[in-house]
Amino acid sequence: MNNLIIKYYYGDYGESKNGAADISTSNNHKPEWPLWEVFIRSKQGLDHKHVGSLHAADAAMAIENARDVYTRRMEGVSIWVVESKYIHASNPDEADSLYDPANDKAYRHPTFYELPEELKHI
Amino acid sequence: MELEQIFQDKIDKEIRIEPKDWMPEKYRQTLIRQISQHAHSEIVGMLPEGNWITRAPSLRRKAILLAKVQDEAGHGLYLYSAAETLGISRDEMTAQLLSGKAKYSSIFNYPTLSWADMGVIGWLVDGAAIMNQVPLCRTSYGPYARAMVRVCKEESFHQRQGFEILLTLSKGTDAQRKMAQDAINRWWWPSIMMFGPKDDESPNSVLSMKWKIKRFSNDELRQKFIDVCAEQVKVLGFTLPDPDLKWNEERGHYDFGTINWDEFWQVIQGNGPCNKERLDARKKAWEEGAWVREAATAYAEKKRVKNTLRVA
């Protein structure tokens, strides 16, 4: 009599012909883990700063990986991660027009104003 | 102005190129090739040293070697991320490595036969790598330059710990001194080959210099490295295995013997002592890690669905 044994792996995988070894790779088109951008606060009082990116299945794994990849030498006291697809960026091709409004307003800088030498504490 | 002209003007003015900027297709391709090759070298480079982690002679050495190999994994990851900004996926790069289409530094196709090899790899192999990498901190492509700044900061401990291993052996027994000299003899020539073919046989170099991907030629860096090592080896009381190595007052550099370029091309073409072993190890790691990649994806998806339901 043939016993039909159905093996389930990791809850949701369903039937597998050859045991665990079957859940393997030959398929090269599996989706990659998503890309995350990593921001690190190097010490209390400073901003989080972009340091690079990495792949991880979810946010918890992204934070753990970020710790291993970007803070092996105490480079951080706090980590932010955000999936790269949620970052929106300005277009460098439009930089000229985008920043144009700031270009001709020298009076926004303190050095624009010529004041007498004897004036102190200003 | 032509796009290509605007691009070259930026390069000439030392303005870094960023991922969304226009760039010539050849620039993109050259960078993908160079950065991915560099990343693969970091990853494959873990293998010769991994060989000695379990056999390090003391807990101190073992902890150091572990930290160094972990750094190399990190360096590989910085570089893969930099390459990904150019529009190639991580999996594509891995596939190119495993299929043999992408290369990695030929130095890692040599075996690590003794503990002294850990010292020599740190001193010479990492030393040569640093010589190559320091100018790359100013390379014209922003993400690559930033990755290299990070790499260089961490790399200097690698070279120093290697020299320290050799220094310790140099003060040891005859057998230890012999082991160290043997390791130097085996690694010296492959190390100076790490700078790549001679300038007149390096066709990609001209464009790479024009685009400031590279800032010094292969031969310039090689000479600099030889000059430095010829002095450093004196501190150890060992010798470099080159009878033609001698100071040339007129040139202000050390002269050195003829490099066996045939060996270099053989190893690059896959006929080095460990090419197959290294690639097999990477394939095994990739295949045996597949279930982990899938399980993590499935778990993340399950949690995502659960959260969505809860919110709804």
> Roughly what is the average pLDDT of chain A, rounded to an integer?
79
Distance from first to last alpha carbon of chain A: 97 Å
Mean pLDDT score of chain B? 95
Please give the share of residues in helix of chain B: 55-70%
| Proportion in helices of chain A | 10-25%
Pairing-aware structural class of the strands and helices of chain A?
Answer: alpha+beta
Low-confidence stretches of chain B: none
Strand order, largest beta sheet of chain A: 2-1-3
User: Strand content of the residues of chain A, in percent?
Assistant: 15-25%
- Give the beta-strand count of chain A: 3
Secondary structure tally, helices of chain B:
13
Strand order of the main beta sheet of chain B, please? Answer: 1-2
Structure, described:
The complex is a heterodimer of chains A (122) and B (312). Residues 1-27 of chain A have low confidence and may be disordered. Chain A has 122 residues and is of the alpha+beta class. In chain A, 17% of the residues lie in helices and 17% in strands. Chain A has a three-stranded antiparallel beta sheet with strand order 2-1-3, with helices on one face. Chain A has helices spanning 59-70, 95-103; strands at residues 35-41, 48-55, 78-83. Chain A is elongated, with a radius of gyration of 27 Å. Chain A is built from two helices and three strands; from the N terminus they run E-E-H-E-H. With 312 residues, chain B is an all-alpha fold. Chain B contains 13 helices and two strands. Chain B has helices at residues 3-12, 25-44, 46-53, 59-84, 90-99, 116-136, 142-170, 174-193, 205-210, 218-236, 261-271, 275-288, 290-311; strands at 246-248, 253-255. Chain B has a two-stranded antiparallel ribbon with strand order 1-2. In chain B, strand 1 (246-248) and strand 2 form a beta hairpin. In chain B, helix 3 packs antiparallel against helix 4, helix 4 (59-84) packs antiparallel against helix 7 and helix 6 (116-136) runs antiparallel to helix 7 (142-170). Chain B starts with a helix and ends with a helix. Classes of the chains: A alpha+beta (122), B mainly alpha (312). Chains A and B meet through strand 2 and helix 1 of A and helix 4, helix 5, helix 7 and helix 13 of B.
